[in-house]
Amino acid sequence: MNNNLPTIETAKAQAKRLRVSLAGSGMTIGHGKALEMVAGQHGFRDWNTLHAAIGNTRPRPLVQVGEQVSGLYLGHAFTAEVLGVRSMADGSIHRVTVRFDEPVNVSKFASMDVLRRQVSANLNRDGVTAEKTSDGTPHMALSL
């Protein structure tokens, strides 16, 4: 199976650009024909086969279980082992659980230690959480 398949949206945009390009050359085709031609360009016999292939592929997670990662958690540098990865929704978000090599003090107060050894976070494809601290810093950002 081809691992470099476009998204459904990208394939449809390719079909639209193809129609516009051909129309500029005086050749008019319908949207369905353009979709079939895009499918052929990707090595599939028809649009339905390409659509099914795209729908059945899962994006590769950012990280793998057992992998060593580094980054920032609540503004603190860390290195950690990935304990779990779960794809969420359409695969654009991954729930990642890490165990820090050294506990991270997440307290903002110098007189109080709140140590975290293991955390989970929902990371986008850039390895960054949508959730942010009050100063706008992502809760977690991996160095990819």
Task: Kindly describe this structure.
This protein is an alpha+beta fold. 26% of the residues lie in helices and 31% in strands. The chain has helices at 8-24, 31-41, 47-55, and strands at 68-73, 76-88, 93-105, 115-123, 140-142. The chain has a five-stranded antiparallel sheet with strand order 4-3-2-1-5, with no helix packed on it. Strand 1 (68-73) and strand 2 (76-88) form a beta hairpin. The longest helix is centred in the N-terminal third of the chain and has 17 residues, at 8-24.
Task: Describe this protein with a few key phrases.
alpha+beta; 5 strands; 31% strand; 5-stranded antiparallel beta sheet; 3 helices; 144 residues; single chain; elongated
Spans with pLDDT under 50 lasting ≥5 residues? none
H/E order of the elements? HHHEEEEE
Largest sheet: 5 strands, antiparallel
Shape: elongated
Give the percentage of residues in beta strands.
25-35%
Strand order of the largest sheet: 4-3-2-1-5
Secondary-structure map with pairings?
Blueprint (H helix, E strand, L loop, with lengths): L7 H17 L6 H11 L5 H9 L12 E6 L2 E13 L4 E13 L9 E9 L16 E3 L2
Antiparallel strand pairs: 1-2, 1-5, 2-3, 3-4
Helix pairs in contact: 1-2, 2-3
Précis, in short:
Helix 1 (8-24) crosses helix 2 (31-41) and helix 2 crosses helix 3 (47-55). With 144 residues, this protein is of the alpha+beta class. The protein contains three helices and five strands; from the N terminus they run αααβββββ.
